[in-house]
Write a structure and sequence with these properties.
Blueprint (H helix, E strand, L loop, with lengths): L11 E5 L2 H11 L3 E5 L5 E2 L13 H6 L1 E2 L5 E2 L2 E2 L4 H12 L3 E4 L5 H14 L5 E3 L7 H9 L6 H28 L10 H17 L4 E10 L12 E9 L2 E3 L18 E2 L3 H10 L5 E13 L7 H12 L3 H13 L15 H15 L35 H4 L3 H16 L5 E13 L5 E13 L32 E13 L8 H10 L8 H10 L3 E4 L2 E4 L1 H13 L6 H15 L5 H10 L9 H4 L11 H6 L6 H4 L1 E3 L4 E6 L2 E6 L9 E4 L11 H9 L5 E5 L6 E7 L2 E7 L16 E3 L11 H8 L3 E5 L5 E7 L2 E6 L2 E4 L5 H4 L2 H9 L14 E5 L6 E7 L2 E5 L4 E3 L11 H14 L14 H4 L6 H36 L7
Parallel strand pairs: 1-2, 1-7, 7-8, 11-12
Antiparallel strand pairs: 3-6, 4-5, 9-10, 9-16, 10-11, 10-15, 13-14, 13-16, 14-15, 17-18, 19-20, 20-21, 21-22, 23-24, 24-25, 25-26, 27-28, 28-29, 29-30, 31-32, 32-33, 33-34
């Protein structure tokens, strides 16, 4: 009898990860089922030593793993999940069966295992799995449960322990040698290294200049039409049999690559001379080569290809894509979104083929269903491709979705339907045009064209490209119908100059692709990895590009020199293979972890790792020894990078700076801070010289004639300011503490021009202007939003900073005599126009607000981030900021506590004393409970916040 049989069983408890998922599934199961969420992981390795039970000491307490006893993990119930665990236990006590319905991947299997371990059920337990949340899928999953897959659990546990050892052992090295509160991780450190290496390539890159000719040739036939144009363009391809050099012929050093002996490098002078020599040349068609063109559909989405396409087409970051996909999955619109598979079930294939016929006609449907083999090595997720859910796909218009949800669903739907359509076919043509120049040289031009005779799947979907200049698959280029020997006239010959470009920085989409191509980490974790390296300030975004910080250069430098194997790309990929073998039961985790952590050390070498299916195991061994001997690591050397013979970039504990050593030994050198958002490849010798030439440090301005204190000008993190130096012995803390007067420089002032007189004026603020007829004092002040007058609680803006020092009492009274402006001032013109938002379909502009520049479509406002600049922000980035703001929803204001009702006092005094006493006791109990709950919440919040600064960023 199935576990869902109504007659045999009473109440059944179904546990899923999220409340949204629980709500959807509950609607499909009906009475007899209680569906509750675990709200993610309920148990994990401890974040801090304080969470470890008292019986554990030493290294076990620090790591949360007992490395000397088969790497036994110490699991603790998360502080913020204890109340939820209590609720689950209470529900289980009233249930006759337990269904663990977490996701069907390693992480989901591990969550199910932890639930079973913590809840200790005494009723039958079933593992309920599904890859889409539809009524039929859920009911089938209840009727056909399976046992918990212990291999998947072991594989996930091994990964968790491995990442804990890596993070908790390597991160402290970064704290000691680079900067506090940094983190290292098995995949995040390798991902950071990729971004840093790309920047190094850009820094070492030397551009090469090269020229060619572009010709416009006419056939002389008319009239012309779209299918047979009269003219066409062709580019110079060879001179006297030598191929014209193009960008691919040059190396990163700006020179022609070796083996380019049959290549001709034209400079501007040579290109112009050739164009002049070809002015009177009679050209003709030398050859016409036609080939059939065929393009097959793209495979349905898996996690990484969905992230890449959402980035290219929708401007979504990986994290945002996964958040929207999670929401679509939990609400029953798509199948599970974390998958390596490109397979479609028979039901899905039938649904896709039905929609092809319905929407495009039978001509677009292939005779046999299309199948796609996974390109991912050791694909572990037991799911289909990401596709619309159900046995009949809802068109985007039928879903009722809007905004980001609609756009991502539409992308998935189009890709899935297109995957079951016919190939696109056509013809590709190459035409060679030749002629002899006046000086006897033979010149040959080449033109290529493409005609699509049947668009097939391209009617439904065209894949995007990371390169904005790349030609998409549905682009046609028509050439006139010409034959070999046909005469042509050169209507125009134009010399064109080109320069090679450095390799493009990674975007989120291209970094995801690179990680997957190198088989580093699991595709399902890439979004969180990218989010981590941005959050840790190793990488920042400039538009869509991922730019490494100078901090990441220091971190990667240390890891490469002293932990080279841990950030080696092949080593990381081999570790992934090993973990997959453990999941498949072909290797054992404990011997493998011993080899990784202890190497061949005394008392720990067992040889088991090799015997357990890890080959020779040469890529493993000795993390503990690596992190123990730190004497060879020179912290200053690790964080120093030569800019020129006498200028060095250093990454200090408070940020990066450039330094020029003093000519006098023992004297301090010259230093200058580097802007946080400066891309490393833009730090040239010239810029370093400019930074060092700027005023820095304290500028002594003179003595205050009243106090006698020295006044200085400084450059602070919030801009330049003036302050006073208090005499020695002035108390700085306690009740009698004295704070120095400080004032920001006005917009018209700068550090190198500010004078003592300026400083005295600034420190005189707020200035008393006078008193009004009622005796209320009026002052002129400089505030966060500019200069203003203040009278009691009434403030009025001044039109200029100078007015703070010149405004008279009469002028101030005249300003206050005017009615206070309640509305906003006339809107200032936008700083930049970005185009039409794809969601709201309203024009998006950049404006200057009281908190700085922001993007707006008239409905939603989003402040520009630290790494965004008005000059360089792209439309896609603007749309992304608005979409993120919409996803967060309106800011919730803290609810004001309602004042205690005084109704009780108005009641008649006939109440007995006993009742009053009981009421008082109840109120006291409620207050105590509330206080206890609030304290617990604060404690949990503090622990959560504290854990963010520890080396818990594993992966």
């Amino acid at each position: 009898m199935s576990p869902s049989s109504e007659t045999a069983h009473g109440q059944r408890l179904v546990i899923v990860e999220s409340p949204a998922k629980a709500k959807t599934i509950k609607g499909y199961l009906g009475p007899g089922y209680i569906v509750e969420a675990s709200v993610g992981h309920i148990r994990d390795l401890p974040s801090t030593a304080a969470e470890v039970p008292d019986k554990y000491t030493g290294e076990v307490r620090r790591l949360g793993v007992d490395v000397d006893h088969d790497f036994a993990p110490i699991y603790v119930v998360n502080a913020d999940k204890k109340s939820q665990v209590s609720k689950l236990k209470s529900l289980l006590a009233e249930s006759d069966e337990l269904f663990l319905a977490t996701d069907e991947d390693r992480e989901g299997e591990a969550i199910a295992w932890h639930l079973q371990q913590v809840l200790k059920p005494k009723v039958p337990v079933h593992r309920m799995v599904f890859h889409e949340i539809t009524k039929s899928a859920i009911q089938e999953a209840v009727a056909n449960p399976r046992e918990l897959n212990q291999r998947l659990v072991d594989a996930q546990e091994t990964r968790r322990i491995l990442d804990r050892l890596y993070g908790f052992e390597v991160s402290p090295v970064l704290w000691k040698k680079v900067m506090p509160k940094l983190s290292a991780g098995r995949v995040q450190s390798v991902a950071t290294r990729l971004v840093v290496e790309r920047e190094r390539e850009r820094m070492a890159f030397r551009s090469a200049s090269y020229w060619d000719l572009v010709g416009t040739f006419g056939t002389g036939r008319s009239p012309a039409d779209a299918a047979n144009p009269e003219t066409f363009g062709a580019r110079l391809s060879a001179v006297d049999g030598k191929r014209i050099a193009s960008g691919r012929d040059f190396g990163s050093d700006g020179r022609l690559k070796a083996g380019s002996t049959n290549t001709l490098h034209l400079d501007e002078q040579a290109a112009r001379a050739l164009a002049a020599a070809l002015e009177q040349t009679a050209f003709s068609v030398r050859s016409v080569e036609s080939k059939p063109y065929r393009r097959s559909p793209y495979a349905p989405f898996r996690t990484t290809t969905l992230q890449q396409e959402a980035s290219r087409k929708l401007g979504f970051g990986a994290k945002r894509t996964m958040q929207v996909a999670q929401k679509l999955y939990e609400n029953g619109f798509i199948t599970y979104m974390r998958t390596d598979s490109t397979t479609l079930s028979d039901t899905a294939i039938a649904a896709a083929r039905a929609q092809v016929t319905q929407l495009y006609g039978a001509d677009y449907l292939p005779d046999a269903p299309r199948t796609y083999a996974s390109k991912v090595k050791n694909a572990q997720e037991a799911h289909e491709a990401v596709r619309p859910s159900g046995d009949r796909f809802r068109t985007p218009a039928e879903t009722g979705l809007s905004g980001d949800d609609f756009r991502l669903y539409e992308l998935i739907w189009m890709r899935t339907v297109a995957s079951q359509m016919k190939d696109a076919v056509g013809q590709s043509v190459t035409v060679k045009v030749g002629g002899r120049a006046a000086d006897g040289r033979d010149a040959e031009f080449s033109a290529s064209g493409k005609i699509i005779t049947f668009h097939g799947f391209l009617k439904a979907y065209v894949e995007g490209a990371d390169d904005p200049n790349a030609e998409l698959d549905d682009r046609e280029r028509r050439l006139p119908q010409v034959a070999e020997g046909d005469p042509l006239a050169a209507d125009q010959l134009t010399p064109e100059g080109h320069a090679t470009k450095p390799p493009a920085r990674y975007t989120e989409a291209s970094l995801v692709k690179e990680l997957e191509d190198r088989e580093i980490g699991r595709p399902s974790t890439y979004a969180s990895i990218i989010d981590t390296i941005i959050g840790r300030r190793y990488v920042f975004k400039k538009g869509t590009a991922l730019v490494p910080s100078f901090l990441s250069f220091a971190v990667v430098n240390l890891l490469e020199k002293h932990f080279g194997r841990l950030v080696d790309y092949d080593f990381t990929a081999k570790m992934e293979d090993d973990l997959d073998r453990i999941a498949a039961g072909e290797a054992k985790s404990v011997p493998w972890l011993k080899r990784f952590y202890f190497g061949e050390g005394e008392g720990h070498a067992t040889g088991g790792a090799a015997e357990a299916g890890n080959g020779d195991g040469d890529h493993l061994g000795g993390l503990k020894e690596l992190v123990t001997d730190l004497g060879a690591i020179d912290a200053r050397e690790i964080s120093s990078f030569r800019i020129s013979d006498d200028i060095t970039l250093r990454v200090g504990r408070y940020g990066p700076y450039v330094e020029r050593a003093s000519a006098v030994e023992g004297e301090p050198g010259q230093r200058a801070d580097i802007p946080d958002d400066l891309p490393p490849d833009e730090l040239t010798v010239e810029l370093a010289e400019e930074l060092l030439a700027r005023p820095s440090g304290d500028f002594e301005l003179g003595q205050d004639p009243v106090s006698g204190n020295q006044l200085v000008a400084k450059d602070g993190r919030y801009g330049p300011y003036v302050t006073e130096i208090l005499p020695e012995g002035t108390p700085k803390t306690g009740k009698n503490a004295v704070k120095p007067r400080t004032a920001s420089l006005l917009k018209t002032m700068s550090l190198d021009t500010v004078t003592l007189e300026d400083a005295l004026k600034l420190l005189s603020l707020p200035r008393v202007v006078g008193t009004d007829p009622e005796g209320v004092e009026i002052t002129a002040q400089n505030g966060r939003y500019g200069p203003y007058l203040k009278k009691g609680t009434d403030s009025r803006s001044l039109t200029s900073e100078e007015q703070m020092f010149t405004v008279t009492l009469e002028e101030a009274l005249a300003i206050y005599a005017q009615p206070k402006q309640r509305g906003r001032a006339a809107a200032a013109p936008p700083l930049k126009e970005l185009g039409t938002d794809p969601v709201s379909e309203r024009p998006v502009v950049v404006k200057d607000g009281r908190f700085g520049p922001y993007v707006t479509d008239g409905e939603t406002n989003a402040t520009l981030r630290k790494d965004d600049e008005v000059e360089t922000i792209t439309p896609e980035r603007g749309y992304e900021l608005l979409a993120e703001k919409r996803a967060r929803g309106p800011v919730k204001k803290a609810a004001k506590k309602a004042p205690a009702k005084k109704a009780a006092a108005k009641k008649t005094a006939t109440k007995t004393a006993a009742k009053k006493t009981a009421t008082a006791k109840t109120a006291t109990a409620k207050k105590t409970t509330t206080a206890t709950t609030a304290t617990a919440k604060k404690t949990a919040a503090k622990k959560t916040a504290a854990s963010k600064t520890t080396a818990t960023d594993e992966g």
